[in-house]
Structures are given as C-alpha cells and as structure tokens.
Amino acid sequence: MKDNNYGTAPLYLLQPSSIFTFAAQTLELATQTLGYRDTNNTSSSTSTTNSSFSDDDSTSTRHRKRDEQSGLDVYTLDEVARHDTMNDCWIILYDKVFDVTKFLLDHPGGEDVMLEHAGRDATIAFRGVGHSLPALQALDTYLMGILPPEERVFTGEGPCQWSTL
Ligand code: HEM
C-alpha cells in the first residue's frame, strides 16, 4: 500500500495546497483499498456495479463464489449475520466484508462500538467517526470479501460514497 508524503503531520501544520494533495491521496488510498472507482478516471474504473460472479468450482474443495471484478470472495448478508460475537466478528463497510475479530480489543475506539455492528453494515457509523488515514489503511488487513451485487447498497451516485469521505 502506498504511503502518503505527510506521515503523521497534523493537518493544521500543512500548507493549504498541501491539504488538497493530502485529501486527494487519502481518497485515492481509500478507493484502492476498497476497490471503488475513481469517478475522474473512468479508464481505471474498478466500480463494483454490474460486476459479475464466477463460481469457484475449479477445485473440488472450494465452492465459494468469487467476484470477478474485485477478485474477492462473495459473502451474503445472511452469512455475515452469523458472525456477530466477540469471538467471531464480521462487519460490512461500503459493501465489503471485514473480519475484525482479531482487531476488536485493539480498536482505539473500543470493542463495544464495533460489536454494536457485528454481523451487519457499519458504514454510516464508521463514516460518522471520521476515521483517519491510518485507520483507512488498516482496513486492508481485515478485508475478506464482498456482498453479492444484488445486496450492495453503495453502487449508485448517492452522497455517501468512498469518493465523498
Ligand atoms: C475495520 C474497521 C475499523 C478500523 C480499522 C478502525 C480503526 C480505528 C482507528 C485507527 C481509530 C483511531 C482514530 C483514527 O485514527 O481515526 C479508531 C477510532 C474510533 N473508531 Fe474505529 N475502526 C474501525 C471500525 C469502526 C466502527 C465500525 C466503528 C463504529 C462506530 C468505529 C468507531 C470508532 C470510534 C468511536 C473511535 C474513537 C474516535 C475518537 O476517539 O475520536 N470504528 N478506529
């Protein structure tokens, strides 16, 4: 994953022009991490809209569907909902599935806020906190899959997107 050039410098120490660069880098990083399209660069579009599935039956031991566009395994809302405990905690952020079990006790915001969303979508709460760039970078560590297209809700052009973080 690409580092930004500003390290952990507080925003107020950056020049106004640097802040825009910083914001652009943050957005690019988030877009890369979660595989969403860059709306200004359709040529490198990674939109999950209209993406297709492949049934991963190539091996006899594996039957998990894989999303062709993102390369991620597909998990349904029903499946995610079964992982809603302290010992087995998945959450959904922007239609992607994260296994945060090992992160619960290390989460700077505490395990409680995370457990409140265990087994379901936590996007609005996650967004509401205004997580930092290091927090966005950490997401990649816990990413494990994506919802099937028909269960995704962040595929439109609405105001709540990675591109408007
Ligand atoms: C994998 C998912 C998550 C990661 C990697 C993550 C990471 C972090 C990190 C690194 C911080 C420290 C502050 C910062 O750097 O922004 C933080 C704070 C916090 N997080 Fe999360 N977080 C996740 C999910 C959530 C969720 C789902 C909630 C639900 C509400 C949440 C609520 C909070 C709160 C309330 C704080 C404290 C903010 C403060 O003290 O100002 N986080 N998180």
TrEMBL record:
The record's Pfam families line, in alphabetical order, gives: Cyt-b5
The record ties this protein, via InterPro entries, to:
Cyt_B5-like_heme/steroid-bd, Cyt_B5-like_heme/steroid_sf, Cyt_B5_heme-BS, Cytochrome_b5
GO CC annotation: membrane
Per UniProt, which keywords does this protein have?
Heme, Iron, Membrane, Metal-binding, Transmembrane
Q: Which SMART domains match?
A: Cyt-b5 (SM01117)
Compartment(s): Membrane
In the record, what terms sit under GO molecular function?
A: heme binding; metal ion binding
Where does the Cytochrome b5 heme-binding domain start and stop, copy by copy?
72-148
The UniProt regions of compositional bias labelled Low complexity, in chain numbering, are 38-53
Query: Which residue intervals make up region (Disordered)?
Result: 37-69
Principal subcellular localisation of the protein: membrane
Task: Report the sequence similarity comment from the record.
Answer: Belongs to the cytochrome b5 family.
What is the designated name of this protein?
Cytochrome b5 heme-binding domain-containing protein
Q: Top-down, what is the taxonomic lineage of the species of origin?
A: Eukaryota, Metazoa, Ecdysozoa, Arthropoda, Crustacea
